[in-house]
Structures are given as C-alpha cells and as structure tokens.
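Review the following:
>
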Amino acid sequence: MKGLITMVDIRAEFIEQAKFLSRNADVLPGGLEELAARLQYSADTNTPLRIKLGMDPTRPDLHLGHTVVMRKLREFQSLGHKIVLIVGGATAMVGDPSGKSETRPALTKEQVEENAQTYFDQMSKVMDVGNAEVVNNADWLHKMSFTELLQLAGKVTVAQMMTRDDFAKRYAEGKPIAIHEFFYPLMQAYDSVVIDADIELGGTDQRFNTLLGRDIQTAYGKKYPQMVVLLPLLEGTDGVVKMSKTYPEHCISLTDSANDMFGKLMSIPDNMITRYFSLLTDATKETLELYDKQIEDGSVNPREIKLQLAHTITAEYYGNDGADAAQAEFINVVSNKGIPQDIETVKIENGVNIIDVLLRLNFIQSRGEGKRLIQGGGVKIDGEKISDLNYTLNLENDVVLQAGKRKYARLTK
C-alpha cells in the first residue's frame, strides 16, 4: 500500500482517522502511515475496508476484556467500514493454544453452536452487530479436500511455526505439541483469504496468527495483504492476571448485574483506574493525564475517580438510571456497611455445611473456591466471619449470609 500512496499524498483527514483508530493499538506492519493510506484509498474508491474479527466461542459469555476489541470495531464502523465477524465453528474444534503451556481442549460442534448463540446479543451492547457480516469458518474449512489442505500447509514451514512463543517454550520444555495445533493459525490465516480481509483485529496474544494471515493472503495472490491491529489484554480486577472466566473472582462479565458490575469495578487497584478508563471508555488523553496527576499528588481521593469510572462503564450497559441505582446500592452496602434491600430469602435446613450452602446459592463455583473464600475471611453470617470449613447451620432465627463483598442471602429455616 505504501507503493500505492506515499506519505505526501495522504490528506490530513485520513491522518486524523488513522490516529483515532490507532489509539491504544499496535498497528502492523506499516503503522499509522500505512493505515492512513488504506483509509484514503478506501474513500477514494468508495470501497469500505473489510475489518476481520475471528471469535472462537469457547465460553457462552463475554467480559469487559473482550470489549476492548469490540470498541475498536465500533470505531471502524463509525467511519463506514465493513465488520466481518467470523464464528470459529471449525477453529474452535481444534483449539488455539496461544499463551497456553499445553494443548487446549477442543470444542464439539454442539458446544460451538450453543455458545455462539449468546455471543451476538452481548456484542450488540457494544457495537452494531446487525450491520456486520457474520460468517462461520466451518462453511469453508470443513469442505476443504485433503489436497487443498496439503496445499495450504505447504505455504508455511515448521521453522515459521516454531517462532510462536508458546510452541517454542513447550518444545524447549519437552512438552508435547500435537500436529493439529499447527493447523489452528493456518486455518485462521486462510479465513483472511476467504473473506478478503483488509484489516484483522485481535489481542496482543494473536500477533503470530494475524501476521500469518498476511503471508497466506500473499501466497494466494492478494496484492495488498491485511494489516493487523492488536489491542491490549485487559487485566482482571486483581490488576495482575488478564481478565478471564478462568478466574471468575477477578472477571467482570457482560452478563453481570448492574450492582455486581459496579461493585467489581470499585474493587480494582488504584493503579488500574486510568488503564480501565483508557481501554473501556471514551476518556480523552487530557482527562487521563489529569486523573493520573490527581492520583499521584493526592489532590483527589482515588475512590472518587473510581466512582466515576464505575458509573461510566455501568451506564454503558445499564443506562444512567441503572448506574445511579448501582452506585447508591454500593454506597449503602460498602460505604455505610448496609445490607442490600432486595436480597433473596432462601429456606435452608439445619445441619447443612456452609460450603454446601454457598454452592446451592451459586455464590461459588466449586468447593475449592468456597474454602479459599472462607479462609480469606470472605464469608459472614450476620456480620460475623466464619472461619471453620466444617461449620454447619443451626438456625433459630433468620440470618443474613454474606459471601465476598457483593453476594447476600437471607437464610430461614
């Protein structure tokens, strides 16, 4: 593309568009200049760019970490470009090992279809899914002949595959790498050929896979192969490990209630406030710099800035009224040490172990999680911490059970 349009030919409006789209992103290979050139060529030829995002529906719900990429898709949509959403009906049945130290379990066709059903409703909270082109890569990958598959495999070397960090690490450690795992990045790359992608979006852990798409497109004759826009991986509420449903205690799901979403956002470390603002809101650079300065010099309590963050993000999914109510509830429960007004009353027989009660109420997902919660002082009955893992209920009157900071139930016999 640089050979088509040089920097001096690019008009200022497309430089500004490229700066807008490059915010928080790593744009490869030509950076802002090449992106601006493509944007201008798209406008001059009245041909919207085709923006690719592949999704393997490994879980049925999405979290705020996923919305970092979705928000970038929305920005491309706002400029009139075409979003192509690829449901990984074929690739999910292989499993991408990116960032994993071992083979990732593959999904069945039924699991893929079941999980995919919920994806688009959740994505619609962030972007215009109805105006996107939605395809399933099973439609072409499952139809490839063995000869076509061998031809595809012949376009990349084992040495190239071993430049992937996870493959190289596992090989050095003597851990197994199944041959079919090499086909995941090949399949993802071939998707770019089929849909004729101009730009592919992904997280920073998708660098190898997305750049391989350029090589495969070139091998199949595309003159100007796709650019790659990589977005940061958002940390969970602990501020350390990337947000993932693998760590539910640090994950903010798009299916969380307004109260839970608000409360979880209020639990992030102070040093993550401006990062969340940057990746999850439309806050300007000037606003972020002001918040950083206020937190650093202590002129504003970080809690006040965090309240603005929690309200801004919660309002995006539940409206201002929902965010207002969630903030009021948070202040009542956490700041004023109150109890939520709308907690559920549950009938529990005496003699039941406290961990079994937590499981029955869906306050925890496993016994191990329950043990950790109790040992960390996160389980209370009428405000008193429960420290005994073998504690059993012996109710004479109704009591309030609290698990963590936001889960409550009134227990009655």
Summary: Confidence is low (pLDDT under 50) at residues 99-103. The first strand starts at residue 26 and ends at 28. The longest helix spans residues 302-335. The two ends are 72 Å apart (CA to CA).
